[in-house]
Design brief:
By secondary structure, this protein is mostly helical. Helix content is 58%, strand content 5%. It has 11 helices and 8 strands. A hairpin with a 5-residue loop joins strand 1 and strand 2. The longest helix is centred in the first third of the chain and has 35 residues.
């Protein structure tokens, strides 16, 4: 088996393992999947207890600090390592050949600078912090009584839990407006005021990977044409057999062995362009729908609740057990408010927890009522307004107005 085949098989295995881990660690429901329960609950608890007994609480805090920033370390190694290879090996290669313009040597510096600057902005910009003094500044979204019930207080800070906000336990230990998620790659909480920088960070890195893939592919293609490799007669070293010219796998193996580091960077950029591109499309999709990552998980719970209640009502209607009281409505569940990657936690079999904290039992015939029309996301105000609140955050617009008013008053 040649080196290229081994590499391709390793890449396929890596993608398969990564997809398996992402599904069972992030998306699968631990209440219905024993594998998800192991990865999301059992394994983390066991590992934490083992580390606590092995290294002690004090040393464990130091290890936790390092592990929290492990993704930043990986990012720096991958990005700066790849660009070091580009500057040291690819730039001289561009100077020696004629198929790729030398202008790319200048453009490359701008692309590298853009990546570093966007990463810096995404990692240091504030998502917005809700305090007793700033509650009014971020109180501009209505309560939908589904994902965000009204009259709810933050038990930690003793302030109102504003609609679309969430307590961030990862970095700030404060309530964050329009909370989206915590990103380990930039080690920052993404919220109302810095979500635009996070999207820019993704877009620039997708562009970098696509740009690098195109330039490196052009260099390899130019090398093939320059050396007439597509017409060259090659031989199998082991058998001495003559191989047909222009064989893609044979040429790829030859180029990979001759330009090992450059080929590695090309494959990395091609794979990451696809992965980051899909992730950027996901965020563009939820933004266009007026949702955040946090709200997507909550909305999934609400849709599951509605489908369950609708089926219960239809079954009860066929059996003549459904209530016909028009004033009585099925109350939606209390959606989970844990970490963004938490899976739905409401009961969907014999019981369903309501917003009032009561439990509706299937044996209670009066509880089987029509849930009504499908729930509507009131935060979806149309494509233009959804993107406007991301690119020009409402809180920052309020701050500018207050600053302008104070300046006019002073004059």
């Amino acid at each position: 088996m040649n080196m290229l085949s081994v590499l391709l098989m390793s890449l396929v295995a890596y993608v398969a393992i990564l997809a398996f881990a992402m599904y069972f660690c992030m998306f699968a429901d631990p209440e219905t999947s024993s594998i998800a329960q192991f990865f999301q609950e059992t394994a983390p608890t066991k590992c934490w207890d083992l580390c606590l007994r092995t290294v002690g609480a004090k040393n464990l805090k130091a290890l936790e600090w390092i592990s929290d920033r492990a993704m930043i370390l990986i990012y720096c190694v991958v990005v700066f390592g790849s660009w070091s290879i580009i500057f040291y090996y690819v730039y001289p290669w561009i100077s020696r050949q004629t198929y790729v313009s030398h202008v790319h040597k200048i453009v490359g510096y701008f692309v590298f600078a853009a990546c570093v600057i966007c990463w810096r902005y995404a990692s240091t910009s504030s998502p917005g912090i809700i305090t007793k003094q700033t509650v009014s500044l971020y109180d501009h979204f209505p309560y939908d009584e589904l994902m965000f019930p009204s009259k709810k207080m933050c038990p930690t800070r003793k302030i109102p839990r504003l609609a679309r906000s969430k307590f961030d336990r990862f970095k700030y230990n404060e309530n964050v407006p329009r909370f989206d998620h915590f990103c380990g790659w930039v080690f920052n909480t993404i919220g109302e005021e810095n979500y635009r920088w996070f999207l820019l960070f993704l877009a620039v890195h997708v562009g970098m990977c696509l740009y690098g893939t195109v330039v490196l592919t052009s260099l390899f293609y130019g090398h093939i044409l320059e050396k007439n490799l597509h017409k060259a007669v090659l031989f199998n070293r082991a058998t001495g057999e003559e191989l047909p010219p222009g064989n893609f796998l044979i040429l790829s193996q030859y180029l990979f062995s001759k330009f090992f580091l450059e080929a590695g960077v090309l494959m990395l950029m091609a794979v990451m362009a696809v992965c980051l591109g899909l992730f950027l499309c996901y965020h563009a999709w939820i933004t266009s729908r007026g949702l955040t990552t946090n709200e997507c998980f909550k909305w999934d719970e609400i849709k599951k609740w509605y489908q369950t209640e609708k089926k219960r009502y239809q079954d009860a209607l066929k059996q003549g057990k459904a209530t016909t009281e028009t004033k009585k409505k099925a109350e939606p569940p209390t959606v989970s408010d844990g970490d963004v990657t938490c899976t739905p936690g409401q009961k969907t079999s014999a019981q369903t927890t309501t917003l009032s904290g009561e439990v509706a039992d299937d044996d209670d015939l009066d509880a089987i009522v029509d849930p009504g029309p499908p729930p509507v996301n009131i935060y979806n105000r149309g494509l233009y307004e959804n993107w406007k609140e991301v690119i020009f955050p409402i809180s920052l617009r309020k701050k500018r107005k207050l600053k302008a008013a104070a300046k006019n008053k002073a004059n």
